[in-house]
Each structure stands twice: as structure tokens, then as C-alpha cells.
Amino acid sequence: MVSPPRIHTLPPAWRFALIGALASLPVIPILNRLPNSEATVGGGIMIIGAFIAGVLAAICSLDPSAAGLRAGFIGGTLGLLIFIVTTGTTATWSLSRVVFVVFASGLVMGVAPLFGLGSGRVGGWVVNTVRSR
């Protein structure tokens, strides 16, 4: 007897966070063209991707904060991975530098979802405000 294949789908909050992260990628180079702008991929996903995720979640009557929090986590993780790949492989690090990078990485992973949460709430607020008019 053959059992049907299990289809694993993402929860809606993660799905909207990934869609928001992918949708924010074309916007980041455009923001980098502005004067005095140093937009990074992680920061762009953390703010713009979380905003888009919050908008999508609010349109589907889900919690925009949850989608924004997850998009902020994705942005922080991607930002740290880019930093480790580009800077971490350039030279040998002393013990104090390794300790600092580990501490700072933990701080970034704690703060990035909070920025995403705030941006997701703003996105949800914008949708609810526009929808109520």
C-alpha cells in the first residue's frame, strides 16, 4: 500500500515573511542609489521586507506583527551570514575579536526581529487605515 506524499507547507506568517523578503530585494539597490544611502540586504529585508510582510498579512486578516517579526529574523540572519562570509574569511582573528563578534551577533539577532516587528505593524496599520476609508 502506497501512502500519499506528505506536503509540508509553511505557516502563513513564515510564507508572508519570505514573500516580503523576496519582494524587498529589488527595492534595496534602488535605495542604494539615493544620496548618502548605505542600504544593506539584511537591513532592507528587516525594514522593507517586514513592511511588505505586514501588508500581506493584514490583507489576509492575519497578524502583521508575526509576519514582520519573522521577516526581521530573516533579514538579521542574512545580514550576519553576509558579514561572516565577506569579513570573516579575510584574516585570522584574535580571541577578543571572536568574542566581540559572537556578542554582537547575538545582539543583532535579538534586535533585528524587533525592527521587523515594528515595520510589520506599520505595514498592517497602513493597510487597515487605507481599507477603512
Walk me through this protein's architecture.
It is a single chain. With 133 residues, the protein is an all-alpha fold. 75% of the residues lie in helices and 0% in strands. It starts with 11 loop residues before the first helix and ends with a helix. It has one domain. α1 crosses α3, α1 crosses α4 and α3 packs antiparallel against α4.
Structure class: mainly alpha
Rg, Cα atoms, Å = 18 Å
The average pLDDT is 90
Q: What oligomeric assembly is this protein in?
A: single chain
Helix content range:
over 70%
Quickly count the helices. Answer: 5
Order of helices and strands: HHHHH
Distance between the termini: 56 Å
Number of domains: 1
Please tally the β strands and state the result.
0
Low-confidence stretches: none
Shape: globular
Transmembrane segments: 12-32, 39-59, 71-91, 98-117
InterPro entries: DUF5518
Keywords: Membrane, Transmembrane, Transmembrane helix
Main attributes of the structure:
DUF5518; transmembrane helix; transmembrane; membrane
Brief write-up:
With 133 residues, the chain is an all-alpha fold. The protein has helices spanning 12-24, 27-32, 41-59, 64-87, 95-132. The chain has one domain (12-132).
Topology, pairings included?
Elements: H1 12-24, H2 27-32, H3 41-59, H4 64-87, H5 95-132
Helix pairs in contact: 1-3, 1-4, 3-4, 3-5, 4-5
Pfam families: DUF5518
Transmembrane segments: 12-32, 39-59, 71-91, 98-117
Keywords: Membrane, Transmembrane, Transmembrane helix
